[in-house]
Write a structure and sequence with these properties.
The protein is an alpha+beta fold. The protein contains three helices and ten strands, in the order H-H-E-E-E-E-H-E-E-E-E-E-E. It is globular.
Length: 163
């Protein structure tokens, strides 16, 4: 009797295992992507031609950005297929800093680059003889500000730079 019970348990376990491996896959919600755009705390620094315009630690993540000149576009690292999932970016950090600290910025949207060009920060524009350089931890970004991934603890700088 004991052997019979063990045999039935083994058969039932094997049948259940076979049923689970042979059953069609059920779609599961994507959880990995939800964590790639986790807010990070970074320092945003804006250096104008006459000195420091802004410096503060903020929390940020990749998000849609709206400017007066450029309109509303994504700025979450997926721009230009730079990343497969959303990530925090320098331009998104500038946007969060501006919204939370009562200053403005503006940028032109370039569809060919799938990114913004920062034109004006706190009323200071680059114009024909200067531009806003974006650097992370002192190194200029090799791609646009909506494509470069920033991480917790980074220093994101926007520096007015003359030609």
């Amino acid at each position: 009797m004991r052997t019979s019970l063990l045999r039935r348990t083994a058969v039932a376990t094997a049948a259940l295992g076979l049923a689970l491996t042979a059953s069609p896959a059920v779609a599961q919600p994507e959880t990995t992507a939800a964590f790639t755009n986790t807010p990070v705390r970074v320092t945003v620094k804006v250096q104008g031609p006459d000195g420091l315009l802004f410096q503060k630690k903020i929390f940020t993540w990749g998000h849609d950005v709206t400017t007066a000149t450029g309109g509303t576009h994504k700025c979450d690292g997926t721009n230009g297929s730079a990343h497969a999932t959303k990530v925090p970016t320098p331009t998104a950090a500038l946007d969060h800093a501006a919204k939370r600290n009562g200053f403005t910025w503006d940028g032109t949207w370039y569809a060919s680059f799938d990114d913004y060009s920062v034109d004006t920060v706190k009323g200071v524009s680059g114009g024909g003889s200067a531009y806003w350089n974006i650097a992370v931890n002192g190194v200029p970004t090799p791609v646009g500000g909506c494509q470069f991934e920033i991480e917790h603890g980074d220093e994101v700088s926007f520096t007015w730079t003359s030609f």
